[in-house]
């Protein structure tokens, strides 16, 4: 009874009656998980959440010196920058300080990158400003700017934290570097354009949140109305660049004092702010009018300490209002940080864990909401500064945090007199470094012209529309380019070149494209075509549903062009010709001489060295290709496969009827039909389309010629012979040379 049920089940699922070659099974795949120690893996996962535990026990005085210097150096830059970036986000300056403190203090506990400095950044601040404007427009008078910013930080933090905990951080790899550079360049230009009105004291005369091109035009129109703020803003900006380039020149002239000049240069932000603050106090304090206003715009009161600590106001209505902005805000939050962390990891010889970095960003922003911090992420300028300052461990962030606390509790009275034009100068000076240089853009063009177009599109859309649209454009274009590259693979038809290397008298064959235009092959080298009736084709992508029809089209078209039809259709009556393949027109002038030089197709060799996957649609298209080529040749066509890397690819090909030496069996008509054929329908199909009758079956001696044998000789006289490739699949070959030799054996 059991045997009968087993046979009935095999008949039901179409299990082959003949023995099939041994291929990988799902049991083989699952077997590799057999020895996994779940408890140990869980402990390793939990310990990886706190990377500082791996280095804190080895912390020493030498590391501490480097961290203190780097932490103080970054702190001097972070304090004025954070207040400036809060201004971009349309928030009070203290919120920038809150985000700075939480970012550098918490990140060090979860970081896998020692160089990265977390805090407010220009691009994220611009996005926060856009979100605040949109939510307040749709919910007037319901939420304040800080409540919206803190709510955004919490939601984005939770999303990024979830991505990190689930270890799915690889999704960010779908956005290439040119796309990231494009929207960052566009955002930097937008930020700088939005700060120039403040630099000249004309912010009240135009909308600095409009499209970038409009802000630039309106700024130029209103320059004639510049106020006394321009004296502080323009002077500060020029001084910043003068100090920067002066110390760069001095460092080149006196290399022995390069480090001294470096530290003097990085203090320029703090130095300029101090000078401008003193100048603003001396000028504005005596000139206060009767209404309490000053002749220039100053920062005014900054609350001392953490005045807004507590549970954030986050309700369902706010979450609904923020929902449309979460995707873009999350992308900005994690992309910039991961790009910076990877960059400095490569520069300084260590490897980051992207998933753990996402956890660090998520925890930082989630906990930061208790301190009313708005979204924080990695800063390129401060990370570069921290790296150059000689940071040794992520603990440098704690020193930077102490610096921010000192500023919050001891310097808030002095912050009152900081001129807003001076903060605009600080912002412009910082974001200009985010703009890709012409050399950088040209490198994109040299490497991949299509990616350069994506970069350019992201820049232009960000400038002429918004940062949201710029990000969406770059992401969608990048994914579209990826799909196009998969769907339209550039396969190559190959020929043979024989190499003889120096004193090595044994020549060897290599296979290169028959068309050498644009390839690495010397144009003067003659590429020999395969034997008559043999086609050698190299695939450059996995054979999956988006591109499998392209493979079919390429092979069939090439065969029709370079081989002749096996049956002369000119003498076949019209009534017997297929409706969709009538053959040559009787009125057409056929070049019989050229056609006579061609051979009938006998074998196709497919180089699978670049094929990592093949799906059901791919197998079906290979079956269809074989059918079309055999109808064209009017005889069986051998399919040889070289360099199959994956056992799952081998399994799929065997299931499709490829690779085996059982040449009398039926060739599959459909691998997995969308609309299944009944048994009666399948039986009624013409033999021409279902079963290929191989009358000229090779002998066992001939068949052995297409099987690769290896001979290994030990120190003894014994010789062992064993096949490298299974004898049950003689049409699967170890390399391309053996596959072509096998294909040419019977030609």
From TrEMBL:
Annotated keywords: Membrane, Transmembrane, Transmembrane helix, Transport
Coarse class of the protein's main subcellular location: membrane
Keyword Transmembrane helix set for record: yes
Cell compartments where the protein resides: Membrane
Ranges for domain STAS: 532-688
UniProt-annotated stretches for the region Disordered: 566-590
Recorded superkingdom: Eukaryota
InterPro entries associated with the record: SLC26A/SulP_dom, SLC26A/SulP_fam, STAS_dom, STAS_dom_sf
SUPFAM superfamilies in the cross-refs: SpoIIaa-like (SSF52091)
UniProt-listed Pfam families: STAS (PF01740), Sulfate_transp (PF00916)
Gene3D superfamilies xrefs: STAS domain
Record function comment: High affinity uptake of sulfate into the cell.
PANTHER family on file: SULFATE TRANSPORTER
NCBIfam families per record: sulP
UniProt family annotation: Belongs to the SLC26A/SulP transporter (TC 2.A.53) family.
Protein's name in the database: STAS domain-containing protein
Species of provenance: Rhizoctonia solani
Lineage of producing organism: Eukaryota, Fungi, Dikarya, Basidiomycota, Agaricomycotina
């Amino acid at each position: 009874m059991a045997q009968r049920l087993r046979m009935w089940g095999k008949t039901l699922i179409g299990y082959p009656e003949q023995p099939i070659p041994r291929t990988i099974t799902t049991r083989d795949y699952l077997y590799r998980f057999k020895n996994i120690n779940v408890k140990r893996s869980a402990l390793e996962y939990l310990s990886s959440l706190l990377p500082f535990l791996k280095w804190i026990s080895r912390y020493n005085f030498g590391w501490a010196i480097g961290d203190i210097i780097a932490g103080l150096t970054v702190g001097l830059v972070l304090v004025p920058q954070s207040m400036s970036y809060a201004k971009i986000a349309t928030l009070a300056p203290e919120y920038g300080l809150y985000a700075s403190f939480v970012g550098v203090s918490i990140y060090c506990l979860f970081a896998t990158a020692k160089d990265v400095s977390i805090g407010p950044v220009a691009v994220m601040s611009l996005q926060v400003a856009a979100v605040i404007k949109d939510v307040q427009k749709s919910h007037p008078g319901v939420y304040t700017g800080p409540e919206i910013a803190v709510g955004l930080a919490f939601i984005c933090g939770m999303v990024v934290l979830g991505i990190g905990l689930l270890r799915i951080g690889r999704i960010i790899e779908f956005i290439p570097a040119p796309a990231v550079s494009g929207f960052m360049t566009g955002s930097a230009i937008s930020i700088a354009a939005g700060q120039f009105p403040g630099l000249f004291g004309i912010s009240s005369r135009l909308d600095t949140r409009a499209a970038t091109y409009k802000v630039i035009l309106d700024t130029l129109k209103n320059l004639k109305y510049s106020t006394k703020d321009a004296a502080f803003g323009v002077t500060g900006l020029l001084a910043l660049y003068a100090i920067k380039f002066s110390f760069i020149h001095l460092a080149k002239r006196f290399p022995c004092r390069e480090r001294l000049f470096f530290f003097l240069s990085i203090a320029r932000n703090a130095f300029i702010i101090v000078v401008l603050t003193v100048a603003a106090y001396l000028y504005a304090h005596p000139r206060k009018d009767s209404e309490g206003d000053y002749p220039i715009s100053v920062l005014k009161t900054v609350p001392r300490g953490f005045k807004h600590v507590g549970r954030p106001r986050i309700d369902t209505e706010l979450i609904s209002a923020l929902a449309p902005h979460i995707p873009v805000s999350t992308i900005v939050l994690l992309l910039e940080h991961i790009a910076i962390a990877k960059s400095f990891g490569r520069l300084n010889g260590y490897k980051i864990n992207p998933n753990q970095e996402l956890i660090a960003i998520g925890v930082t922003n989630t906990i930061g909401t208790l301190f009313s911090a708005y979204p924080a992420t990695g800063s390129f300028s401060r990370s570069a500064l921290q790296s150059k300052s000689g940071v040794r461990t992520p603990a440098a962030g704690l020193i930077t945090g102490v610096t921010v606390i000192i500023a919050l509790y001891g310097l808030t009275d002095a912050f009152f007199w900081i001129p807003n034009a001076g903060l605009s100068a600080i912002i412009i000076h910082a974001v200009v470094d985010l703009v890709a240089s012409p050399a950088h853009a040209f490198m994109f063009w040299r490497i991949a012209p299509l990616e350069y177009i994506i970069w350019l599109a992201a820049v232009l859309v960000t400038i002429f529309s918004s940062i949201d649209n710029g990000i969406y454009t770059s992401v969608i274009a990048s994914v579209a380019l990826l799909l196009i590259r998969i769907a339209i693979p550039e396969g190559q038809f190959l020929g043979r070149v024989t190499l003889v290397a120096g004193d090595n008298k044994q020549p060897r064959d290599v296979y290169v494209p028959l068309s050498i235009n644009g390839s690495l092959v010397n144009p003067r080298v003659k590429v020999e075509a395969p034997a008559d009736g043999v086609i050698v084709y190299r695939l450059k992508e996995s054979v999956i549903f988006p591109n499998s029809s392209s493979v079919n089209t390429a092979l069939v078209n090439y065969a029709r062009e370079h081989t002749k039809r096996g049956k002369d259709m000119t003498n076949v009556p019209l009534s017997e010709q297929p409706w969709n393949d009538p053959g040559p027109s009787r009125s057409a002038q056929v070049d019989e001489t050229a056609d006579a030089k061609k051979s009938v197709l006998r074998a196709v060799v497919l180089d699978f060295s670049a094929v990592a996957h093949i799906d059901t649609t791919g197998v079906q298209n290979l079956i269809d290709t074989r059918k079309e080529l055999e109808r064209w040749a009017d005889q069986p066509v051998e399919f040889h496969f070289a360099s199959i890397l994956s056992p799952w690819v081998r399994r799929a090909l065997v299931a499709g009827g490829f690779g085996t030496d059982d040449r009398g069996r039926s060739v599959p008509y459909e691998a997995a039909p969308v609309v299944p054929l009944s048994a009666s329908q399948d039986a009624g199909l013409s033999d021409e389309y279902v079963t290929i009758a191989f009358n000229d079956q090779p002998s066992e001696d001939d068949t052995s010629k297409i099987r690769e044998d290896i001979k290994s000789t030990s120190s003894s006289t014994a010789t062992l012979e064993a096949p490298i490739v299974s004898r049950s699949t003689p049409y699967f070959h170890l390399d391309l040379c053996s596959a072509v030799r096998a294909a040419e054996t019977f030609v």
